[in-house]
Amino acid sequence: MRISELPGIGTKYEIKSPEGDKVAVIFLETGEIELYVLEAGADKPSVTRLTPEEARRVGSVLTGAMLTIEREDVEVSFSDISDLRINIHICQVTGSMVGKSIEDLAIRKKTGVTVIAISRSGQSIINPPPETVFEEGDLIVVIGERAQIKAFARVILGLV
Known about the structure:
The chain is an alpha+beta fold. Helix content is 19%, strand content 41%. Strand 4 and strand 5 form a beta hairpin. The longest helix is centred in the middle third of the chain and has 12 residues.
């Protein structure tokens, strides 16, 4: 990798592949990032400008720490363990859950998901014990495989 300071512009990082392709990333002084790709033998590079958030997302994809976000669901996958997909789901406690504990509802036994956190009146309960009783307005975070999350929504939350 070659690093160059570009006075008044920013910092350029350039990588050349064994096939002769070049990728350059320029961190502009404005905070934006420009990404250039010049294929071997091409006359002109492809270029796109990214916000810092977009650049972080691309970086996550390239390093294999991919997140797929869909509404209140997040799916995490890892490059070193390609068959591992962890799904995290955030939902509001339903009326049928209020006054009952994690253990009373047998959430893990019935669905396979684990309750990893509860947000209650602006306070976080991380890794709540099984005897934790749900209250009206609680937001809960559960983790499991996609099928387990669906079973949780159906069996515990009563969603179809």
